[in-house]
Amino acid sequence: AQEAAVRAQAEAVRRLKQDKADPDEIAKEVAKLLEMKAQLGGDEGKPKFVLKTPKGTRDYGPKQMAIRERVFSAIISCFKRHGAEVIDTPVFELKETLTGKYGEDSKLIYDLKDQGGELLSLRYDLTVPFARYLAMNKITNIKRYHIAKVYRRDNPAMTRGRYREFYQCDFDIAGQFDPMIPDAECLKIVQEILSDLQLGDFVIKVNDRRILDGMFAVCGVPDSKFRTICSSVDKLDKVPWEEVRSEMVGEKGLSPEAADRIGEYVQLHGGLDLIERLLQDPKLSQNKLAKEGLGDMKLLFEYLTLFGITGKISFDLSLARGLDYYTGVIFEAVLLQQENEHVEELVGVGSVAGGGRYDGLVGMFDPKGRKVPCVGVSIGIERIFSILEQRLEASEEKIRTTETQVLVASAQKKLLEERLKLISELWDAGIKAEMLYKKNPKLLNQLQYCEDTGIPLVAIVGEQELKDGVVKLRIVATREEVNIRRESLVEEIRTRTSQ
Amino acid sequence: AQEAAVRAQAEAVRRLKQDKADPDEIAKEVAKLLEMKAQLGGDEGKPKFVLKTPKGTRDYGPKQMAIRERVFSAIISCFKRHGAEVIDTPVFELKETLTGKYGEDSKLIYDLKDQGGELLSLRYDLTVPFARYLAMNKITNIKRYHIAKVYRRDNPAMTRGRYREFYQCDFDIAGQFDPMIPDAECLKIVQEILSDLQLGDFVIKVNDRRILDGMFAVCGVPDSKFRTICSSVDKLDKVPWEEVRSEMVGEKGLSPEAADRIGEYVQLHGGLDLIERLLQDPKLSQNKLAKEGLGDMKLLFEYLTLFGITGKISFDLSLARGLDYYTGVIFEAVLLQQENEHVEELVGVGSVAGGGRYDGLVGMFDPKGRKVPCVGVSIGIERIFSILEQRLEASEEKIRTTETQVLVASAQKKLLEERLKLISELWDAGIKAEMLYKKNPKLLNQLQYCEDTGIPLVAIVGEQELKDGVVKLRIVATREEVNIRRESLVEEIRTRTSQ
């Protein structure tokens, strides 16, 4: 009966694939199939393990790690170029540290089991631990990055790069400074990283919590509804205005007039010209918060002009962002759909970076409520990673997963000792070297290993070479072979594998 | 009343310090004091947070990160020199994946709360996830490293580098190979890393589970007591033989004769000579397991002789190692006490790396029980890190926490725009550059910032320089100043900061 169920499930998967169904759907059914197969187990009465990683997580094999390290390296270079220090915090925090920081999203926090002692939760982002770190160490001034995994019990959509365990790459500037200078640098960082990674065209949407709040006020939204109306606005990148409007009026009880006034604003986006226009707007210009926000937005655009990146920036009144802790500028980078690049359609376009100013968060942790103004950006690696992974697969580019410079090989039998002696010399000289773990490997197998793994050189020891005090160095790509005096071998390998 | 308790605790801490009590003890009482103070809270009615990281964990600030990255970089270089690929796995596994792998230590596993869905646990080491990864992906042949945090609900002793969240740096070779070649490479790796990190003298103890089991058999230990007697032997690096013997006889019910026979063996350590002697031992040589183990140990020493590292290796019959999954060679590297280096006394000497062969673990995950022989080594970073951190503190060496090459500064007011323009050019050219986030910073403050953070160069823009198309470059160390044509600035900075 169980086997019949497995067969039925396999058939279901086959059909979904044939119908080119939603990839998430297929993935889900494949996972179910694998689980059923695993539970069915082997035929030797071995324990029936479910052999899988937890829902919403995955392993990174060597190829994926090679891509991941490329992405990290681009991001870290940029953070260091901007003079950031680096910190790390534990993967879990006291539960109360996270309480009251994420609004509705708090339900997605992973708690640890109470095994006696403190109540703990896995970190949900890197921003709250950062604020806790600043308050705990009384740091009022730092520019730091932090790259680490965070955890959300969200609905995973893995083919689109949405996981329950995922990396965040955060850069933040904390301290009391003149307005918009650190904020502008955060946007410059996003522009540098996305350009460097060559992900195609992108736009960075910018707005300000004060402009949003001022706008809600002049549109006649009651104070008590700011938050919930804000979260409706936040949906505008996914659903059309009409739907958002009916949510505001229907579910959230906003007056139709207020909703229509909001509707006029949130469809606006542009640059300095729009900011100037809104500064003249008879209603908005009367609101203190909005005026402050617009004034700072103007300053921000002046700085971004000096950085030469306004072409990538869009002041967008529909940008709201969910997290509770933002107090000023907010921003989000979105990849634009590529034409004729069907590879990326699978992944879908979407936000790959976001951030903003949060001037009140550190104060929530300080016993005396002392504030440390902060602004920061978080790069979402998984989505970027999904795109690069699929692009690489499509390109059939061969990616090396090791850096080995030379394979130490032998052409005849009984030379294991000589191989061990030579490879040890090479390791001690800092050469990246491998050998096959066989007493008498065939030369053909040794050469094949180089082909498979991309090792460029083979150092071959043989009876004659040992007598002559040389090693035969073979260049895998050209099949050329040269005898090198043993004492020059290290230098020769270095020269041939440099660059 | 609460305040009086805090004062009493503060007094207790003062006394402990005065008495130069055990540092762990002091740390514990200080932590208690801080917690009491935190609970007492501020005087403005703010929420009374306990501002701390969870028990047994800590933050890494920029200075600690700088040391940590040095250590990682040495370890990763070595792993790459030996041709390893890299993988990563999730921080948690299905609970059942970890079940039955760690013997008594299983009680130290962190479980996640059941929030609906799968039952999860934080990983306890990187070996079991590796075995799960191999079985799940049907990989029979890989050489990989994995550097990540693992979690144990152990009694922390943080001044000695024992934490509940800590890094492991693992290198493993999986596959069916000729005997002892991969095993020898693992020992070579330990020797390379410990030498490279300059931690002082060390010894790598080596033994084999088969020799231990054979020894127990010929000493007359009943099969059912192998495990528990093995864990008594494991204590010999901390307590004297007499204590271990009385545990064996008293608590574990071993006959005094058997215990004495074990006592003779476990006090032996040496090299090839000892192996030869034991191969002639009338009792051991009759035991199949012991003979196999000793034969392989001899082969291992031959290979280690070719690697030139037998001076660092001690075949030690008292080495047992706790984990259940080892099946062959086991080893452990121990730092030796330095004379006249009182700094390190605080940290204490102890094991900094360990590993061994586990040929059965992957098979536990395979539905058909197919085995993949493995051998690997795990470097314990926290202890090494504690030593280096204390050494650095004692040396008063100044450690840079950023790589910034140049500070973009101005000597006069109203030059913010010019600074922004110049720094943007530098960033785009790949130069690591910072500026102060002030509209009109004082030159003195800008120079002071360079002194504090170790930035070697200052690029100063001023009215006259702008007119002349130059930038004044100041070398912080010598206070020398030179005018550089703007178009040559990038090249000049690169030259002056290369190497």
UniProtKB/TrEMBL annotation, chains A, B:
Q: Which UniProt keywords apply?
A: Aminoacyl-tRNA synthetase, ATP-binding, Cytoplasm, Ligase, Nucleotide-binding, Protein biosynthesis
Q: Which GO terms describe its biological process?
A: histidyl-tRNA aminoacylation; mitochondrial translation
Where does the WHEP-TRS domain lie? 1-54
EC annotation from Swiss-Prot or TrEMBL:
6.1.1.21
**What does it catalyze?**
tRNA(His) + L-histidine + ATP = L-histidyl-tRNA(His) + AMP + diphosphate + H(+)
GO cellular-component term (any): cytosol
One Pfam match: WHEP-TRS
Isomerase: is it a keyword of this entry?
A: no
UniProt domain Aminoacyl-transfer RNA synthetases class-II family profile: residue ranges: 56-388
Where L-histidine binds, per the record, is at: D125, L126, T127, R152, Q168, D172, R321, Y325, Y326
Q: Which SUPFAM superfamilies does the UniProt entry name for this protein?
A: Class II aaRS ABD-related (SSF52954), Class II aaRS and biotin synthetases (SSF55681), S15/NS1 RNA-binding domain (SSF47060)
In its UniProt record, a GO molecular function of this protein is:
RNA binding
Family listed: Belongs to the class-II aminoacyl-tRNA synthetase family.
Q: What is this protein called?
A: histidine--tRNA ligase
